[in-house]
Design a protein that fits this description.
alpha+beta, Rieske Iron-sulfur Protein, 2 domains, four-stranded antiparallel beta sheet, 9 helices, elongated, respiratory chain, disulfide bond, metal-binding
Length: about 375
């Protein structure tokens, strides 16, 4: 047999009878591998340095396990619902929710990664070998010998007798796996919109009446939360636009409620008075034919793309523009998008006037305002 042909491979029967050491040597010969150096990581067993290395690896695995469990606890049980700044303790705990999730999950991943790296560095043999490059797929004999190599590396790393590392590594990997499983499960446990009838859900806004018959008026923002200025139809010139907010008589002497009405993100509404010639060309949306009052139309200021404020109104073209991503909506065509990434019309608020001529909302929007979310059908 020539040197180029290499050693003769054993038969299947001979291969089955070989132990790991024999397979290890055979694999080297068949692959043209020459092991130059194969030092033991810890030639002297049980030294203080070895025990320190083992405890260090176990520490990182244990840290990963604790952080993974802390992530699950924070995700499910930490106060996660928004609290207003006047509730100091509640607002403080709520402000920690997202940082806690990031820190605990990061530590779980980091601890497991550092533990694996340290174990590889401290205990897995760092052999020096020379191998000839070869082409082609793996044969059965190659698979058997490589498994022998892996098993030998594991045996030389002394993982079998390091129960502390095995337990902490298992705990770290298990906790991280539990954290990964908890993410989709938590969405079923914690549903902030399960009570979809209240004004704090995605389906409703601050314009929703608190009880049947309550009138929610259109109010100007003068820059003074305590100052209440309601809007009449004649207050706007033809072609004008004004941003208005909800007001209830029950909130007249409630400074906090008056201030919050300006701060709630889905409250701003664009009140537009069309010019007579433009009002005659309006195309109304089916089911919303009576949402306007004369030539006055009220659209949400929350863009249906990603929720930016559609704060620009172009009188000459009757276009409502969103400055974030340049979506444009036609005020003469029920707020229909005509340019840009938005695909849904702006929600229209039904309005009318009371006996004194003040404008108020006849009810909340009949569809969610702003961008899409999971439960939304359109």
């Amino acid at each position: 047999m020539s040197a180029e042909e290499g050693p003769k491979p054993p038969t299947e029967a001979e291969l089955a009878e070989m132990d790991r050491d024999q397979l290890l040597k055979l694999g080297g010969k068949l692959d043209g591998v020459e092991i130059v150096d194969y030092p033991e990581p810890w030639p002297v067993k049980g030294t203080r340095a070895e025990r320190r290395a083992e405890r260090l690896v176990a520490f990182w695995f244990a840290l990963s396990a604790l952080a993974g469990l802390a992530f699950v606890v924070s995700l499910i049980w930490w106060p996660w619902q928004y609290k207003e700044p006047n509730d100091e303790r509640g607002a403080f705990l709520y402000s920690l929710y997202t940082p806690l999730l990031g820190i605990t999950l990061g530590l779980a991943i980091l601890g497991l990664a550092i533990g694996v790296l340290l174990y590889t560095k401290k205990f897995v043999p760092a052999e020096t070998a020379v191998q000839e490059r070869g082409d082609g797929g793996s044969k059965e004999i190659d698979k058997a010998t490589i498994l022998a190599h892996l098993a030998d590396a594991g045996n030389r790393s002394t993982i079998a007798r390091r129960s502390l590392i095995k337990r902490t590594a298992g705990a770290g990997a298990g906790a991280l796996g539990l954290a990964a499983a908890a993410l989709p499960v938590a969405s079923f446990i914690k549903d902030p919109w399960k009570n979809s009838d209240n004004k704090d859900s995605l389906w409703h806004t601050g314009w929703q009446p608190a009880h049947p018959g309550e009138k929610v008026y259109l109010r100007r923002n003068t820059g003074k939360p305590e100052e209440i200025v309601l809007v009449k139809a004649e207050d706007l010139d033809a072609g004008a636009m004004e941003t208005v907010f909800p007001f209830r008589e029950s909130e007249r002497h409630d400074e906090h409620a008056l201030s919050q009405a300006f701060k709630r993100s889905d409250n701003p509404v664009m009140l537009i008075r069309l010019r007579p010639t433009d009002a005659a060309r309006v195309v109304k949306r089916e089911g919303q034919e009576d949402f306007n009052f004369g030539d006055l139309y009220a659209y949400t200021k929350i863009c249906s793309h990603v929720g930016c404020p559609t704060s620009l109104y172009e009188q000459r073209t009757n276009r409502i523009l969103c400055p974030c991503h340049q979506s444009q909506f036609d005020a003469l065509h029920y707020g229909k998008p005509i340019f840009g990434p938005a695909t849904r019309p702006l929600a229209q608020l039904p309005i009318t006037v009371d006996d004194q001529g003040y404008l108020y909302a006849r009810g909340d929007f009949i569809e969610p305002v702003g961008p899409a979310f999971w439960e939304r059908k359109s």
